[in-house]
Write a structure and sequence with these properties.
Helices cover 8% and strands 31% of the residues. The chain has four helices and 28 strands. The model is unreliable at 1-25 (pLDDT under 50).
């Protein structure tokens, strides 16, 4: 709204007494007064604008007033909030101005607060990483209205850019419709009855072939008892508690999965074999790529130094809502699957030197692991028996990186244990080239983080 003061207009002095320039015979130049923005909402900042702008310095004072007479401020600008104005309220700006060549006096202009549009502050699809054939998908918007208007929220699903209408009564996608490699999009429309807003959210359900197993929060004994065959001196028996459920890749990361993540052309004779030869930081960088693929938080800060990548964790692994390497405790608890034996299917019940055909309480070691007696190179993942959590190849095939620096554990109880103090890392699980003793759940090896070895692979986790 503009208020125009001209040589023939009526002016108002401080006593609100009308004075006409025609009556006074004055030659007064006009000024204009307006409030910006033109259609303000309760969250805007109002500005009282005077033209010509070169006379703004001559203004003696500004006065902002609510329509009920409440004074609101004395500056050229007035930040609004729902605590001082509401939708449809009227606010005025008065300017006291004295100048010999322009219309002087008390000039006033007012504006009306208009409806604020709804706001979608967050929009996601839950769960972020569904367990295939188990989890459905839910569109989860966070929307509010500054004016406290009642909102109507509607969602539309798209699968691979095509509208998908086979939704459940609560608007969710049922588990049998969710498959690896799908690209789901949730489109949300929010209306307050007058104004509306629409927003899209994308999620990539899974890299083709990745399956996740769920490991529940629990307390468990880690390390090994003195009588366990092959026991090492650094396998202190201790109680550890993990306070959150977490997902574990059901297999080691394969060549095919790594190619999908990086977009690189990888020459391989075995696409379903586990990827190897990556340093700890290269594995962490792949975890960040997978987090980006899932629209999740990245757990590592990575920089390139002389063509080599160097990564460090941004926070405790347990606090990161993204794909990452497991802590040593997470790895061992996932491998044990609530057993207290050397392997999830029992202890070694026969003896041998180095490489031998190991027998376990419940089955032969060759039924659950590729090791020196059964393989001379990495094998295709997922061929052998899984543990109670549905995890395969966690013993043998390749050693697997963990998040932890190497240290000697004490025997006290710990919750969510983690160590990152030096450039060594713990690897777990043993490989195709190792003896049965190296494959035990408690076995741990100390290596430098920058090592690139053909017998070290990757298995990622995610805190649920």
């Amino acid at each position: 709204m503009w208020v125009l003061i001209s040589t023939a207009c009526v002016l108002f002095d401080e006593g609100d007494i009308p004075v006409s320039c025609d009556e006074l015979g004055c030659d007064i130049k006009p000024i204009t007064l307006r409030i910006e923005p033109v259609e303000p909402t309760v969250s805007d900042t109002l500005y009282c604008m005077v033209e010509p702008d070169n006379i703004a310095a001559e203004i003696a004072s500004y006065r902002w007033t609510h329509e009920d007479g409440t004074p609101l401020g004395q500056n050229q600008s007035l930040p609004l909030s729902p605590t001082i104005v509401q939708k449809n309220d009227r606010v005025s700006c008065s300017v006291i101005f004295n100048h010999p060549h322009y219309a002087s006096g008390n000039h006033k202009v007012e504006t009306q607060i208009v409806n604020s549009p709804p706001i979608i502050s967050d929009l996601g699809i839950s769960p972020a990483v569904p367990i295939l054939s188990y989890d459905g998908l839910y569109c989860v918007p966070t929307a509010y209205d500054i004016d406290d208007d009642e909102l109507v929220v509607a969602s539309t699903w798209f699968l691979n850019d095509e509208r998908f209408d086979d939704v459940y009564v609560d608007g969710s996608i049922l588990p049998h419709n969710v498959h690896a490699g799908d690209r789901w999009q949730c489109q949300v429309h929010v209306s307050d009855g007058e104004l509306s807003i629409q927003e899209d959210s994308d999620v990539y359900v899974a890299v083709e072939g990745i399956q996740w197993a769920t490991v529940p929060a629990q307390s468990a004994l880690l390390g090994s008892p003195d009588a366990e065959q092959g026991r090492g001196p650094d396998e202190t028996l201790r109680m550890a508690t993990l306070s959150s459920d977490y997902f574990v890749m059901a297999t080691e990361l394969t060549e095919n999965m790594a190619a999908a993540l990086t977009g690189l052309t990888i020459e391989s004779d075995c696409w379903d074999c586990p990827v190897s030869g990556l340093s700890w930081s290269e594995a962490a960088e792949l975890a960040n790529l997978l987090s980006e693929y899932y629209w999740l938080e990245q757990c590592y800060s990575c920089t390139a130094i002389d063509s080599e990548v160097s990564c460090v964790p941004d926070m405790s692994p347990y606090a990161c809502n993204g794909i990452r390497l497991p802590t040593e405790a997470e790895w061992e608890i996932a491998a044990r699957a609530q057993s207290n034996t050397a392997f999830h299917s029992g202890n070694i019940i026969n003896e041998g030197m180095a490489c031998f055909d190991a027998e376990l309480d419940e089955q032969r070691l060759e039924d659950i692991a590729w090791y020196c007696y059964t393989a001379s190179e990495p094998q295709r993942v997922g061929q052998l028996n899984v543990n109670a959590y549905g995890i395969s190849d966690i013993h043998g095939n390749l050693w697997e990186w963990t998040s932890d620096s190497y240290s000697v554990w004490g025997n006290g109880e710990t919750t969510d244990p983690f160590s990152f103090e030096n450039n060594t890392r713990v690897i777990k699980g043993g490989s195709f080239a190792d003896s049965p003793y190296d494959l035990r759940a408690a076995s741990r090896r100390n290596v430098l983080s920058n090592i690139q070895s053909d017998d070290i692979g990757i298995r990622f986790v995610l805190t649920r």
